[in-house]
Every structure is written in C-alpha cells, then in structure tokens.
Amino acid sequence: MSTVYDCSQPETRQAGLAAAAGVVRSGQLVVLPTDTVYGLGCDAFDSAAVDSLLAAKGRGRDMPVPVLVGSWTTIDGLVMSVPAQARRLIEAFWPGGLSLVLQHAPSLAWDLGDTRGTVMLRMPLHPVALELLREVGPMAVSSANRSGQPPAATAAEALAQLGDSVPVYLDGGPSGEPVASTIVDLTGAQPRLLREGAISRADVADALEIDADQLI
C-alpha cells in the first residue's frame, strides 16, 4: 500500500522525508518532486533497487538512469575528473535544469544500466528533493512515469501510473511546466548538446565562453 505525504505542511513534510529516507535505505523506490517533472528514485548504489526502478517504468537497461546529487561537491567522488567546463556549468546552473554527462569513477560499485562508463548528473532546484538527497546521498532518478507515457507533473499523476510499485510518494505540488533538463555531454574533446531543455543552447555556450555553434 502506497502512502502519499503532503510536503506543503511542515509536519507531514518531515514525516514524508523520514519515510522516504527509510524506503531508499531499504532498497525500495520513492517518488519525489523536482524542478522539472516528478522523479522516481532509489539508492544509486543499490543495483537491485535500480533494476526495480527500470521494471516499474517498463524500461530496459539500454536507457541508463541519471543520478541526482544534493550538493556541488558530491560530484567529485562520482566521476573520474571534473573538467573546467563542468565547473563553469555547475557554477552557472546548479541547482537547476542542467544535466552533465561525465566519465564516472571506475571504482564505484553501481549499476545504472548500459552506461558505457559514463554517468548523467544533476542537482535539482527543489527543496524537498535537495533535503532527501542530502539525507541519503546520490539517488538514481528517472521521470516518474511508465515508459512511453507522459512524465508526471503531480504526485497524483505519478501514483496513477506507478501505483503500489512505489511505497512512498512525496507530494510537493504541481511541478509547473514539465520542461526536461538540458543535457550536455563532456566526455569528448568538445562539449555536445544532447538535448536542449530548461537551459538554452545560447546560455550554455555563454557559460562555457564559446560560440553556440561550437556545441556539436
């Protein structure tokens, strides 16, 4: 049986965050609000939980799960190195709607899908998400919907799609316009814009101090 916690009220917010932290630590799933759309998350280092996340979405391992972090500094322990371009983008847009693809640290014991040695990282601009991330650490988080269905902009929409496969839903109110994050791949010689979303190509180029047409 799933439980929905209203995070607009201090008492239920704290109860919800405590329940969500317990669920994540026990290898189960949680739905949480973010600044883009609602997310379906679990402990990034629990491969069985990641498998459960993919199963709940009806998605295969060929679409690896991104990782959300609760602070700028968390990234240092997750990737092989943080290039200067990544630092510029983090300083400009985190927390916010920018995801970075980097080479993950080879020592990490995680399995996010067929990542080919990379990880997509983001720090969301949402107080409930940040509080949970700072409590439990990095989380594997994908949009809270069944594969092929619209992303959930409310906890109720997520519940309608995912049901009892998720024991805890944190209701942070409507997410607003469901705009996906912009994705920049920094694993090659030149930055690559994989998806233009909440952050424009021009703004990414400005932060990198390059011309927009240099974003391949």
From TrEMBL:
Keywords: ATP-binding, Cytoplasm, Nucleotide-binding, Nucleotidyltransferase, Transferase, tRNA processing. Its EC number is 2.7.7.87. Residues 14-199 form the YrdC-like domain. It catalyses: L-threonine + hydrogencarbonate + ATP = L-threonylcarbamoyladenylate + diphosphate + H2O. GO terms for cellular component: cytoplasm. PANTHER family: SUA5, THREONYLCARBAMOYL-AMP SYNTHASE. This is L-threonylcarbamoyladenylate synthase. It comes from Streptoalloteichus hindustanus.
